[in-house]
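Translate structure to sequence.
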């Protein structure tokens, strides 16, 4: 078939991808097909005319380039960022799964396990946490894995309930001392990391409330509070704004305790 344009070629590929899915070839075929549709480059067809007795023979070639793992990973992250579409996010998740399980693409592994950790499936949450703990243990310079493990073991508060949700699926309770081991390591690796600082601070506040704060705990609370204030200054995204508002009430508590003026 001759394609008049790249758009026509993409439409045809989309139709093929849809038909394959209907025939029962499964998610993996549909995911790879959709990636090819997005990433494919259709090179302009080569038309070579050979004159012969008032006739010409037109030769056409369609060259399709398979997307690289980097391109698939980039597209998966883009789909995961579509917060207004669960369907697109699920497609991105499946694309990461293909990269992790079929090609062992290293950059996708950690991101996929974080996605699993934030899932609403107990099995997926358990697998995500287990794999991230392995990464944190084997790669002590991996700030993201360290943070996610620390967050999972932390104590929720009135602003953030992520730790409680994860712990309910994992069947565990907060482990504030272990959480802060992870968080202290993470914040030392990344000078811009304010989240690890916040959660370590939050956990020390909880320790003070339940009477388990170490002897030097008050000084550490103030230190982390000041560090958070310093690091958050360079961030102005929506997530950072939530963290800024979250610590306002903690500031008043610190004043009541006489830790700051």
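Result:
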């Amino acid at each position: 078939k001759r394609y008049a344009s790249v758009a026509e070629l993409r439409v045809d590929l989309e139709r093929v991808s849809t038909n394959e899915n209907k025939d029962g070839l499964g998610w993996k075929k549909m995911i790879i097909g959709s990636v090819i549709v997005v990433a494919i480059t259709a090179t302009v067809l080569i038309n070579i005319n050979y004159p012969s007795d008032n006739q010409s023979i037109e030769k056409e070639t369609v060259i399709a380039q398979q997307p690289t793992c980097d391109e698939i990973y980039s597209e998966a992250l883009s789909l995961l960022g579509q917060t207004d579409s669960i369907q697109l996010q699920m497609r991105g998740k499946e694309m990461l799964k293909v990269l992790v399980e079929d090609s062992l693409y290293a950059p996708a592994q950690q991101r996929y396990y974080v996605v699993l950790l934030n899932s609403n499936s107990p099995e997926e949450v358990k697998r995500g946490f287990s794999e991230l703990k392995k990464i944190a243990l084997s790669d002590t310079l991996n700030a993201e894995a360290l943070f996610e493990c620390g967050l999972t073991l932390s104590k929720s508060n009135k602003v953030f309930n992520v730790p409680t949700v994860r712990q309910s699926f994992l069947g565990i309770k907060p482990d504030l001392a272990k959480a802060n081991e992870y968080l202290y390591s993470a914040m030392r690796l990344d000078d811009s990391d304010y989240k690890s600082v916040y959660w370590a601070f939050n956990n020390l506040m909880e320790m003070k409330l339940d009477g388990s704060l170490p002897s030097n705990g008050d000084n550490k609370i103030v230190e982390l509070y000041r560090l958070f204030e310093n690091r958050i200054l360079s961030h102005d995204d929506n997530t950072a704004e939530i963290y800024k508002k979250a610590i306002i009430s903690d500031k008043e508590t610190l004043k009541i305790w006489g830790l700051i003026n």
